[in-house]
Amino acid sequence: MYFNRQLRSLRFCKGVDGKILFAVGDYKDVYHQMQANPLVEIVTLASNRKWLRYTGRAVFETEEKYTNLPFEEHPQLRKMYDKLNANATIFHLEDAKAQIDSVTGNVIETLE
């Protein structure tokens, strides 16, 4: 499998309806890259100095109850997106796996 491996920051993450949802602007390169290749890896450094790697296939949500979530949480984004004539696209990962690594790269735990 080939995952999109470019550094991109995601400002929105929320658990809803048993899914972990993320948002990305439809005007950004990463959105178009995910459309072409939906296999993604999301990485974060936890406060306990361990890496969390979350991989899977991006599935974009189309229901309005999801698409408005970033604007409900961060109302200032609405003005920015309106100026750009853009939308926030919401996605979750299907067939997802999570892996916890030490800062030295050793796998501590894999979750499916």
Keywords:
112 residues, alpha+beta, Pnp Oxidase, Chain A, 6-stranded antiparallel β-sheet, 23% helix, elongated
3D architecture notes:
This protein has 112 residues and is of the alpha+beta class. The chain has one domain (13-111): Electron Transport, Fmn-binding Protein, Chain A (Pnp Oxidase, Chain A, Roll). The chain has helices at residues 29-36, 64-67, 69-73, 76-84, and strands at residues 13-16, 19-25, 39-45, 50-61, 88-102, 107-111. Strands 1, 2, 3, 4, 5 and 6 form a six-stranded antiparallel β-sheet that branches. Strand 3 (39-45) and strand 4 (50-61) form a beta hairpin. The protein is elongated, with a radius of gyration of 15 Å.
CATH class: Mainly Beta
Order of helices and strands: EEHEEHHHEE
Oligomeric state as shown: single chain
- Main sheet properties: 6 strands, antiparallel
Task: Round the mean pLDDT to the nearest integer and report it.
Answer: 87
What is the helix fraction of residues, given as a range? 10-25%
Fourth CATH level, the homologous superfamily: Electron Transport, Fmn-binding Protein, Chain A
Number of DSSP helices? 4
How would you describe the shape?
Answer: elongated
In the predicted model, the low-confidence regions spanning at least 5 consecutive residues are none
Counting helices, strands and paired strands, the structural category is alpha+beta
Let me know the number of strands: 6
Report how far apart the termini are.
Answer: 17 Å
CATH architecture: Roll
* Topology-level CATH name: Pnp Oxidase, Chain A
Strand content: 35-45%
| Count of distinct structural domains | 1
C-alpha Rg (nearest Å):
15 Å
